[in-house]
Amino acid sequence: MDSVLLFKCLADETRLRSLLLIQRESELCVCELTTALNESQPKISRHLAQLRSCGLLQDRREGIWVFYQLHPDLPRWVVELIDLLAREHETYLQPNLANLKNMGERPQRRRTCCPA
């Protein structure tokens, strides 16, 4: 992975927060991220597409819903960098994590946010 491209991808606050939330939760769908970040679906989807094109995320479809997770083939140094950012930015993510928590736990959240 090209380090300049990586840092360009992470230079946007929405992309950084999205990546760190996905890293923390293992997998999130677009609707969970729109609630967590209090942003519109088109904006979140655009930023997720950029993270995917940078090679940081992969997606999985479940019906009409798209779920994102860290790409499993990331170089070790990228995974370590993301882990370090997540640890160092715990308070940075607190408002977003509180928004996710208000949605309920994952099974309840998925039923509310991503009905089949």
UniProtKB/TrEMBL annotation:
Keywords, in A-Z order: Arsenical resistance, DNA-binding, Transcription, Transcription regulation
Organism, scientific name: Pseudidiomarina salinarum
GO biological process, one term: response to arsenic-containing substance
Domain (HTH arsR-type) ranges: 1-94
UniProt cross-references to Pfam families, sorted A to Z: HTH_5 (PF01022)
Molecular function in Gene Ontology: DNA binding; DNA-binding transcription factor activity
Keyword Repressor assigned: no
Transmembrane regions: none
PROSITE patterns: HTH_ARSR_2
InterPro entries the record matches: ArsR-like_HTH, HTH_ArsR_DNA-bd_dom, HTH_MetalResp_TranReg, WH-like_DNA-bd_sf, WH_DNA-bd_sf
SUPFAM superfamilies the UniProt entry points to: Winged helix' DNA-binding domain
UniProt protein name: ArsR family transcriptional regulator
